[in-house]
Design brief:
The chain has about 160 residues and is mostly helical. It has a single domain, classed as Rossmann fold. It has 9 helices and 5 strands. The chain has helices at about 10-20, 25-30, 35-45, 65, 75-90, 100-105, 115-125, 130-140, 145-155, and strands at about 5-10, 30-35, 55-60, 90-95, 110. The strands form 2 sheets. Strands 1-4-5 form a 3-stranded parallel beta sheet. The protein has a two-stranded parallel sheet with strand order 2-3. α1 (about 10-20) packs parallel to α3 and α2 (about 25-30) packs across α7. The longest helix is centred in the middle third of the chain and has 13 residues, at about 75-90. The mean pLDDT is about 90.
Length: about 160
């Protein structure tokens, strides 16, 4: 999966940063592209939050006018991530918000979320067990329903049934 063109929204980056697992994205994809609005959202509370992550490429979107079409329903980072993904022909966009994901799919973007990234990391041997990572996310305020937790652990081969 490395050498894919991957764009991310802020939520997956913030969630993985909080639990010290942002490097999973580098190990999976080699590089990550984020729009300026995502960079702003990630660094608003800590300007140095992304220092040392040279594999994260921050770019401006070209079509500023298109951003206005989504402004009423989505956050700036979500909108810019989708627009940037379209502009550069990204093979994957990482975002968690349900409405944003629907818009991204409407734009014919391939979408995954933080949990999907973790499933891929487990399958690729980057993490040995998904349960502790999910538990860390939940402890840091990332919402995952009990049903989803159970299904993800089943898909990861950590429980049966």
């Amino acid at each position: 999966m490395r050498n894919r063109t991957v764009v991310s929204n802020s939520t997956p980056i913030i969630a993985l940063l909080r639990i010290g697992r942002l490097s999973i994205l580098e190990e999976l994809y080699g590089a990550l592209i984020i729009p300026k609005a995502v960079h702003v959202e990630v660094t608003v509370k800590d300007a140095s939050a992304l220092d040392g992550f040279e594999w994260i490429d921050v770019r401006n979107i070209a079509n500023i006018a298109a951003k206005e079409a989504f402004a009423a329903t989505l956050h700036d980072g979500e909108v810019e991530a989708m627009l940037l993904a379209k502009e550069i022909g990204a093979s994957l966009i990482i975002m968690d918000d349900g409405l944003a994901r629907k818009h991204a799919k409407y734009l014919n973007l391939t979408v995954t979320g933080t949990v999907g990234v973790l499933l891929r990391a487990k399958r690729d041997g980057i993490i040995n067990e998904i349960r502790p990572v999910l538990n860390d996310l939940v402890r840091q305020g990332f919402y995952i329903s009990d049903d989803v937790l159970r299904e993800v652990r089943r898909l990861a081969g950590e429980i049966t049934g």
